[in-house]
Task: structure prediction
Amino acid sequence: MQDNHAQVREVGLRDGLQMVQTILSTQQKLEWCRRMVAAGCTEIEVTSFVPPRIVPQFADSDEVARGALAIAGLHPSALVPNLKGAQRAFGAGLKSVHYVLSASNEHNLKNVRRSTKESAEDFYNIMAARDESGLRDVKLGAGVATAFGCTIAGHVDETTVLDLVEYLLKTGADEIAIADTVGYANPGQVRQLMRKVLELTGTTPVTCHFHDTRGLGLANVVAALDAGVRNFDSSLGGLGGCPFAPNATGNINTEDTVFLLESEGMSTGIDIDALLEIRGIVASWLPGEAFVGAIARAGLPKTFHAGMA
Amino acid sequence: MQDNHAQVREVGLRDGLQMVQTILSTQQKLEWCRRMVAAGCTEIEVTSFVPPRIVPQFADSDEVARGALAIAGLHPSALVPNLKGAQRAFGAGLKSVHYVLSASNEHNLKNVRRSTKESAEDFYNIMAARDESGLRDVKLGAGVATAFGCTIAGHVDETTVLDLVEYLLKTGADEIAIADTVGYANPGQVRQLMRKVLELTGTTPVTCHFHDTRGLGLANVVAALDAGVRNFDSSLGGLGGCPFAPNATGNINTEDTVFLLESEGMSTGIDIDALLEIRGIVASWLPGEAFVGAIARAGLPKTFHAGMA
Result:
């Protein structure tokens, strides 16, 4: 891998689609994936193994996972909220599965109706289930949500986050994700926390998952880059939103994130013009949904070329 | 002045209003100013001394300047495009006047129908006119527009910008502003250029004037802070836009900029809740104009307190 490589993982099919009114067909979801791969974006979180009665959008998660695995060049992953979801993801044949728990106990209770401690213990069970099934080739990542603050609990201690990261690493996590679930992070906080996280993780990959709820999403990407983070989650057209802040924007926008990273001299391998084309297609499938993003409005600078610095 | 002080200058009455359809009354403009001062924002670019036939919004620039000078606590300034505009600003009694020229000769020709060299010579004439009129107490600042690239010419050389800064300083500029007029700047570029600018300016104040056209406005503020810049222009509600990119957003948003700076541990002296109230009032005066901004949509984080770090 080059020194200046940055990885952008598309989470619009998961974090984005869980917020929209329209249920996409399995075929549309897979077409979105195929087009992303053609645009150079090969890491996609394709679905979430939550109970369909909670999020009907993901009733087809098995089919999406199996279809995604058949797309050449794609590395599909999925989010799982618990052991049952993880077993479904393993069963579908996915080689990359992400588990998430909240640093804020209050948020964790609201999100999955159990304490952070119980969710942490469940990660141990999921890891054990993976190993007992002889699926050690499956990468099992773990994310810490509300790592920069919580709309319910407010302040979240850095040590709470770092202790969880240590536990997840000790339990065998193959990737650590640090998520600003509610858009509370600021650049100074990101730079400080991510430096400390990277001291703990060693060679384990670390991903930042930012929301742009309060306008600081891309500024936080720059701060994370400064700290040494090279992996970012983002959503095409900023699709999504925030269940805790109506009218607010959601994940950082994939097109704008790629634009920023390439402008900062990083190489993502992703073609922004192709992303804009996919954005138009996906938007046509989701009438009434807000698609945000500055590059879609204003276009690339005349001075832009990939990997600029 | 404290070490952690950052200055936010409101330019919505100038850069914002020059783009809108509705002409505000002089009384409305002055009420906007009064309310900003009450919110703690005491630096306001209140008008532009351009010919009224070019920008009818500024036909009342004399009255606005005189009215603003009568507001206790306010330090009003105005933009001037040429000697004639400067003489009108001096005549109105303003103690702070900003001149601007473009690093891109093509942009300068389009903007003021003369070359950058001719505009640079005119700054000398304006400075001489000020001194001959015995107005040495008037601060005469100079801004370099399209300092990070140009929608017409494309790339702008760093040395072109730095040579202009040297010339403006030698001619006696009391402030240097570096403007990303078209929203082309990226954080790496900002950090690098602003470090070099600050090496030249010594004790002369330096202001960054960013547009959020391509979503990197606040990320660029963080980069400029890193470089040592402490003065920023911004516009309430991001009012304005970009004449060169229809549908694009304009100046960085004042509320979001104050939120970012305070989150980064800087002290602006400005009350964000009061800004949001003024935003609502100004928006009611300007039907149909786009007011953008993340804090207005999502609210402040529960964890926010001024000067956080």
User: Anything to note?
Assistant: The domain at 7-298 of chain B is CATH 3.20.20.70 (TIM Barrel). Chain B touches chain A through 46 residues (CB under 8 Å).
